[in-house]
Amino acid sequence: MQAVSDKERIHVLDVTRGIAVFGILLVNMRFFTASLQTIQWRISLWPEWWNAMTDRLIDVFVSGKFLSIFAFLFGYGMVIMKDRVEARGQPFARIYARRLAALALFGLAHGLFIWFGDILFHYAIVGFALLLLHRAEPRTLLTWAVILLALLPVVVLLSGASGPEAMLDSETEAWVVERIAYDELVYSRGSWADIQQVRIVDWLTSAFNHVTFYPQILGLFLLGAYFAKLRLLHDVRETRGALVKLAWWTGGAGLLITIAQPAMPDFAYIAGGPIIGLFYVAVIGILMSNPVWQQRLMLFAPVGRMAFTNYILQSVVCTLIFYSYGLGLYGQVGPLAATGIALAIYIVQIFVSRAWLARFRMGPLERLWRRLTYGRAAGATRV
Which of 26, 51, 228, 308 could be cross-linked to 79 through a Cys-Cys bond (beta carbons 3.0 to 4.6 Å apart)? Predict the structure, then answer.
């Protein structure tokens, strides 16, 4: 089984995935640098204007958007893989189930032993629901995608939980403050065993939060599969007109949601993530239809081709920077500085990914994942 050749690759997907890797890192820096409780309760530990502005910009332009793109591309990639596997006369469902099982193992190892905020395990679980619909017609995929994507926003609106967050009562506030201080102590100064104990607790809390978003994740998977079945990103020069219309509709809706964000932060996050994420996908597709912009944006393609490896590597590097078994900077870095660190990490990943792919057809974890999916027949990976 040979790796996909450069001529077979859909470059807009690599570029979009590469950009999404950076957006996800920007948001994840919040979880690497401070207690999970600060995110859950929207507690700001850095009130300086430059840090507050950084947080605000990330909330408006990044949070929820690039994770939505990642989920969208997961569904798009499933259809591409299905077409290629079935063209070779192989059983797609069995192969894809092995792929998802391997991804779940990777996700568990990542979440339990490196960083608690892993998303891969949950993609694997929801991926089995996607597998059940892999033969569905495009109209069916779109219908279910819209229903599932509308579910959480409607629940939030009807529950009245979409308004500004309520004040904590004194007892809860005291517990949250104590937990933040404890997390900072453990992650910045504790032993590996101490950190591991807290990491598992945080993974369980984070996993429960992810489960509440399963309908949205599946909706994004199905939306990506719908786009793939219509081949809307296979050749962006041919589909540019459709992408322009999509950009206008999603851009307009995203603008309205962004304006409403101060009054309805929960609703804006849940509804705005997929809509603005889709706007970003459309804009990247439009730009990639222009040869000049395509050449510029191809800078991000190597990171996208190694997105799995780069995602895990980001966790390894950031925990070494912030946890006690590394530099121990946990709790000492504000949003602006954390953004600078994220940018530095990503720039290094651009160069490392390019150098790696000059010698090999895929990243090291991509190769291992492929072997677990196809078995020993995965084939040579050296260029």
Answer: 228
Residue 2's pLDDT is 42
- Tell me which of 10-14, 198-202, 247-251, 267-271 is least confident: 267-271
Give whole-number Cα distances, 194 to 179, 269, 306, in Å.
14, 33, 32
Which tokens belong to 75? 């569904």
How many whole angstroms separate alpha carbon 168 and alpha carbon 84?
53
Cβ burial of 247 (10 Å; 0-12, 13-18, 19+) is buried
What does the pLDDT look like over 325-355, one tens digit per residue?
A: 999 999 999 999 999 999 999 999 999 999 9
**Sequence-distant contacts of 78-83: CB under 8 A, at least 24 apart:** 78/127, 78/130, 78/131, 78/134, 78/221, 78/224, 78/225, 78/228, 79/134, 79/224, 79/225, 79/228, 79/229, 80/10, 80/228, 82/134
Return the pLDDT at 9.
84
Total Cβ atoms within 10 A of residue 42: 11
Q: 3-state SS of the chain: helix, strand, coil percent to 5? A: 75, 0, 25
Residues 6+ apart with CB under 8 A from 209: 40
Q: How confident is the model at residue 171 (pLDDT cuts 50, 70, 90)?
A: confident
Angle between helices 307-322 and 92-113 (to 10 degrees): 10
CA–CA separation, 157 and 239 (whole Å): 35
Write down the pTM of the prediction: 0.94
